[in-house]
Amino acid sequence: MTIHPTSIEELADALHSAAASGKQISGWELSSLPRSIVHHASDLTVTLTSNVHLAELQSKLAPHRQWLPIDPLSEISPTIEQILSSNLSGPRRYGFGTIREHILGVTVMLANGRVIHSGGQVVKNVAGFDLCKLFIGSRGNLGIILEATFKLRPFPESEKLFACQCSSLSEADAVINTLISAPIAPVILDLHNLSSSNHWQIVIGLAGATEDVAWQAAILQSVGEFKASNDHYLDAAIRQIPNINATHSVLPSQLCQVLALLPKGPVLVHAGNGIIRNGTTDTVPVASSVSGLLKRLKSEFDPVDIFGRL
Amino acid sequence: MKLVPTHVVRQLEETVGKANVIAQPDELIVYECDAYTLERNAPQAVVLPGSTDEVAEAVRICAAHRLPIIPRGAGTSLSGTVLAVDGGIVVATTRMNQVLSIDPRNRRALVEPGCVNIWVTRAAQHHGLHYAPDPSSQMACTIGGNIATNSGGPHTLKYGVTTNHILGFQMVLPDGQIVWLGTEPNGGEDTPGPDLRGAAIGSEGMFGIVTQALLRLTPIPQEYRTMLAVFETVEDASHAVSQIIASGIVPAALEMMDGLIIQAVEERYGFGFPLDARAILIIELDGLRAGLGRQAEQATSFCLGNNAREVRQAQTEKERNELWKCRKRAFGAVGKLSPNFMTHDGVVPRSKLPEMMRFISDVSARYGMQIPNVFHAGDGNLHPLILYNERDPSQIQRAIAAGHEILRKCIQLGGSVTGEHGIGVEKIDFMAEQFTPDDLDAMRALRKVFDPEEHCNPHKMFPGAMRCADFVQRKQIPA
Ligand SMILES: Cc1cc2nc3c(=O)[nH]c(=O)nc-3n(C[C@H](O)[C@H](O)[C@H](O)COP(=O)(O)OP(=O)(O)OC[C@H]3O[C@@H](n4cnc5c(N)ncnc54)[C@H](O)[C@@H]3O)c2cc1C
Hints:
By secondary structure, chain A is α+β, with helices and mostly antiparallel strands. Chain A has helices spanning 8-21, 54-61, 80-86, 93-96, 131-135, 169-181, 210-223, 232-240, 255-261, 288-301; strands at residues 2-3, 27-28, 37-40, 45-49, 66-67, 103-110, 115-119, 143-151, 153-154, 158-166, 188-193, 200-208, 227-229, 248-249, 267-270, 275-277. Classes of the chains: A alpha+beta, B alpha+beta.
């Protein structure tokens, strides 16, 4: 059953009747719920409803030269709810981390229809347990995220991308290792092969004060043949890689070994983080000890199982 | 004081060795409180395990006898969160204190829970890396304690708090089961499913005992610009803080000390602070050399624009270190001002700092109590220190009441009663003010996931908890 509530009360009613009738809710569409974005520019925070699309948020923040430093890959800008519940990320996670690093508070409707809050609107807060994290990556199986508060970052004064062509994976590996130990602080460190040839491209993104970007760009020249570039490779990746948000996550230093074993095909890698996007995903089973915790989590938060399995 | 049955002591001794169980009442006094000293009660015994398996076995013994388990690191908590409210067994990580490995290529450190915070940076720095969260107590506090309290510190303004630097950890659950939450030592950083690691960070020792932790290391900045801005009023300094934050500069640290603190610190450490200053800001910028000069000029002009009398820059690494030493030991210097003090750590939105500082000085006047302030201004995280003399019961009452007014104001301004020190036993009463009954129920549900029997660090966090029978005031431990 998919629900399309137009008010919070209606949403709660839908959960109650699902629980009463023993039906599962397979999906929801929150676009008709009230929307709001409350930007506290001088505090560098924002509180917004989860049905807001990221692009809409960023364009509201842009005149203040602020942004939520998250850049998930998808054709249509995802909503805040999608970003949180699927833990979506993109290339700039190398510089800024994933959404868990930016969240300050959440409002969630639990399976019993009650609305709960965790965290708050200030940048430091250790009152109570950190339930915010619980809902990140939970794919909507513990509750429905209604609102969130994030800390924001000022726009970098300048951002420049550079790319370097490598004729083999081992060459790319060597360049990446050199970059990691160089005195630079990139915000993007990607590697891709979208032509299925043997050519690999390393993309590096530098951001910050204009002087910092220029100084680092000069260092890049001593590492490899880096040329000024742009982020069009991301559009190509979205077009060529089906299911772009399916990822493998490996120890960054083992990346090239793992890549060598993957079947040929378009691939985009966040090399600094060890994240591989080639349309497939790891099928590592959850450790049995953790599966006990997950089972208890489910029975505490959704005992009649209206949201489906974790 | 409750005694522990001798057969339980024997079982614990068989597990960790006779030398590593403390059950003599006089030796247990050391463990009767943490750095929050208003409430005290000794545990029934203390065990000092040497490995994860020993922790698990000790925990199983406690569980079998329904004895409360209280994890303990260095005991520097400021909220009474290691207090054995109703007795129980303290499991202290003192012997599990090694840095197990540093992986510079992947910027990770694997450490034991009793490893002292600063040791991680010491082990990593020759690789050009450091562990960013730097609580002022970093010379003593442990990584296990940091994870359990989600500690902050002066440099969290730019680098984030503990949760932003913990990739994963091993934990012994209160039933003795061993789990690994989050990123595994040689695993990829993303793990499937809800972020259980994140949910357990900051759980104040109520979810289990951390027995190993995988930390994220951060490159040491190429250069620092550390500045000292001197103001005639706290209000001017607060305005400068708000403007710097709003301007888009992200300082590594932005700390304030008010007049009383400046005098105490100066008397104790002789740094050369102007004794007549009413407020000082320590502004630290870090990063690449190229852009720092211009940012430093900008920050300076915000200070001067808010009537700063002067803005000095630390000229040498030694001078910078001295300055930070003074800041980090400021609590210690307060002993000069008063036999006792109460430390709060409420948070307000940064733009509300000027209003909040006015409020604190108003409370100070109304209650006739001195309240010096030394705090993480850039985060809006206050540390008003309420000075009192324990020999005068009316002062104790006034200090408590003044503190409560300040915390209530933090909530009212959209903030929180604690930014880093935790709820513990100290701030239990505020949970129901900051959260709704449903919020609290959800937190209780999460606790049950980890500890269905609720015997790990009980009587903390939730309203209605049992209080110490022995709610007495004694001499303040010098921090
Ligand atoms: C002078 C001074 C300055 C301070 N400055 C700061 C500061 O700048 N920022 C800040 O955040 N805090 C600060 N603190 C507070 C304190 O240092 C921190 O809360 C610190 O993280 C506590 O670490 P600890 O090892 O002393 O833990 P303890 O005090 O021993 O324990 C604290 C909590 O952690 C739990 N715990 C300990 N070890 C484990 C483990 N292995 N597994 C599970 N739970 C565990 C305990 O049960 C307890 O709930 C300061 C304290 C003092 C005295």
